[in-house]
Amino acid sequence: MTDGTPHFNIHAFRxxxxxxxxxxxxxxxxxxxxxxxxxLVSELMLQQTTIPTVLGRYDRWMRQFPTPxxxxxxDEQTALRSWEGLGYYRRVRxxxxxxxEIVNEFGGRFPDNAEGLKRLPGIGPYTSGALLSFAFNKxxxxxxxxxxxxxxxxxxxxxxxxxxEGQKYLWSRAESLVDPEHxxxxxxxxxxxxxxxxxISSPDCLLCPVRPFCSAERPETLPVxxxxxxxxxxEHHDILYIxxxxxxxxxxxxxxxxxxxxxxxQREDEHTLSLPHVLKQTxxxxxxxxxxxxxxxxxxxxxxxxxxxxxxxKIHGLPMASPDRKALNSPTLGKLLDHIR
DNA sequence: AATTCGGGGCC
DNA sequence: GGCCCAGAATT
Length: 341
Hints:
Elements: H1 10-24, H2 36-46, H3 51-64, H4 68-73, H5 76-83, H6 90-104, H7 114-118, H8 125-135, H9 145-154, H10 164-177, H11 183-195, E1 232-243, E2 246-251, E3 262-263, H12 270-274, E4 277-285, E5 288-297, E6 307-311, H13 312-315, H14 322-329, H15 331-338
Parallel strand pairs: 1-5
Antiparallel strand pairs: 1-2, 2-3, 2-6, 4-5
Helix pairs in contact: 1-11, 2-3, 2-8, 8-11, 9-11
The structure holds a DNA duplex.
InterPro entries: DNA_glycosylase (IPR011257), HhH-GPD_domain (IPR003265), HhH_base_excis_C (IPR023170), MIG/MutY (IPR044298), NUDIX_hydrolase-like_dom_sf (IPR015797)
Catalytic activity: Hydrolyzes free adenine bases from 7,8-dihydro-8-oxoguanine:adenine mismatched double-stranded DNA, leaving an apurinic site
Cofactor: [4Fe-4S] cluster
């Protein structure tokens, strides 16, 4: 059933969804504000990151950087350190670049149109629509994983939602559905529906406010997605080398993964590999399944580009990826580092 | 059109 | 362990 059929009354659909949201919608910090800076921070944090994770970080970030000027004023290292643990660190670089542009070029004001917003780094179709609707209450469409799931089910649409054709269809559909009178609430509502009634594996259609408008025959089988890339297993060998009260760390180069962040130096030579490891970790990063060994080196290693000795009391302030921070805070390494504390 | 970029939470 | 996510940028 689509809005071309006599059964689909678009006004009734919008009203049912918005009224349900007014009753049942959950309270998030980013739903208590229309300040574009606060909305922008929440949207960048939430890109490919779950609400529970962001809830644990959002308020602290907003206290530290209450305005674009606050983030614009600190160095990149500080921004990365504050983002630590959230991953996809390009997001915080984009956020800081936006903050500086807003302050220095736009007199502290955000663009309120899609063309202006999409020119900013890290802002694509979704985040642009989110800012326009959540901050400015403009009738811009949004399509995220929640909206894609809801729309695919409502239309019983079985083309992969992550295909070009699927994306084109969903964006067009979202644009035709968004309520021009209540854009902010409508977009919040359709996302909320995807998180609650219209969840992935066990949709609760009995509680769904828009069930009369839904064509899904087997909702749990929708949406269809393209297959994921295969997981590759890799092994990394890194070193812990202590000199005086300092530890040898490497700064990750620009343009690569974890750019600007610090890590334990990598060594894959036979001598290092022959040393027993003091720590073994396994973790996943994007499509890689990593087994990582940290070897305790006592002979002075040859220093490489980007490697430097960092006093132990300075390491806390440097940005590190989660596995490295966890390694540093592990009891095993902690015991070794206690000697130089 | 495919790949790169993290990490935590959940099952 | 595998799966998922309030995506965007790059190749």
